[in-house]
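Try it yourself: sequence plus guanine, in.
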Amino acid sequence: MPAERIDGVAIAAKVRAQVAADAAALIAEGVVPGLTVVLVGDDPASAVYVASKEKACTAAGMRGETIRLPATTPEGELLAVIDRLNADPAVHGILVQMPVPRHIDAQQVIRRIDPRKDVDGFHPVNAGKVLIGDADGFAPCTPAGVQVMLVESGVETAGKEAVILGRSTIVGKPMAALLIQSGKGADCTVTICHSRTTNLAAHTRRADILIAAIGKPEMVTADMVKPGAVVIDVGINRVEDPGAPKGYRIVGDVKYDDVAQVASKITPVPGGVGPMTIAMLLANTVRAARLAHGR
Ligand code: GUN
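Structure, out:
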């Protein structure tokens, strides 16, 4: 029997409805949750992401603002913008869209953001809080979204073997940190695999929950998946397709059609993890606003 498709669009809509309700409650108390996105340069993909973040904010009744800076902006100028946003009480969340131009040190930029406004969950203070299970911290939006998807689709996680493909700071490492905590959507035994892992398939075949975040198109094949496993595909890869209207199509890290014959549940690409990321960004921003005002 083919796997059940986990509908990221529907789950994200549910999260966004809750965010809108939470935002409305704060607004009724005189606090308008506000997210400021800073975009440096004119990378077309980043411009699309940033526009959708601002639109999602306003759709949830929040204040969304984008500051666009030229690609030549000196690092000091960007840091000064962050200082101003850190000091602005109307700004509850700050997100500097990555990647930044090469002359700017991304780590310096991330460290300059007040951790209480770091709704991306990239600041070392938040990374540490997520690791120690401090509920005060902000988890990065993509792994937080994956955890919500597991909970919302009724996946039992306690005691399960979770195998994560990819050790990035944005997805793989925080995903592991979330899944090893005790509590809902967690209590897993976690393995992280990466580019130097030997015998990858031996690890993936043990997984009750397999999370692919490696950025390699359709790399996870059916023979790598244990029958009945839950497969979460974080990958968003562009592959050439002369037959497609744009000359390319978007695929995940998982060979969907084949793996869906083996797995019990699987996320599609697009329409899986992707929509969750913005939903969690909004949720983090509302929480930042609530915390800032002692609610
Ligand atoms: N670039 C691609 N994804 C992200 C994200 O989640 N946050 C930021 N700041 N930049 C990104």
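One thing you can check immediately is this: The chain is about 40% helix and 15% strand.
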